[in-house]
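Justification of computing resources. Each target in the renewal requires a structure prediction run like the one illustrated here; the chain below, 157 residues long, is used simply to show the kind of job we budget for.
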Amino acid sequence: MRRSGKFYGPMVELSRLQSELNRLFATFVESNQGGAATATSWDPNVDVMDDGQKLRILIEVPGVDAEDVRVTVRGRVLTVRGTKKGRTRSREGIRFFCMERYFGGFVKSVALPRAVNTHQAKTQLKEGLLEIVLPHVPDQREKETEIPVRAEEERRE
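Resulting structure tokens:
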């Protein structure tokens, strides 16, 4: 469904809600650790696509190395954890007037719209874009399966 030039629907709204909750949780955790939460919260952007055979998830993680990323699936939730390294330290005589780049850890969870085969999952991190491909698991509810009916056996005493 489209509304004013943008996609709209329950999954889009759920994704936006999840992103906002991730951001708020990260802010809460960092503020309780004494960090400057508003300057260090990072919630990577995500696209989830379904072509009928597989889910394709794209997550923007610029500046993150593949060895610093961990992808897990539990139930129907995909979670990506990672760390972006390389913060420039303030040195004597140098003042920052603006610092918008984020460095440090992040966690992004995405609700998957259907069951997936994690054994055939593939990932690729290229030019700051993490691609995760998860084949569908066939829906057994749509497959007709015959269950044999057995007659009750007589009891012998």
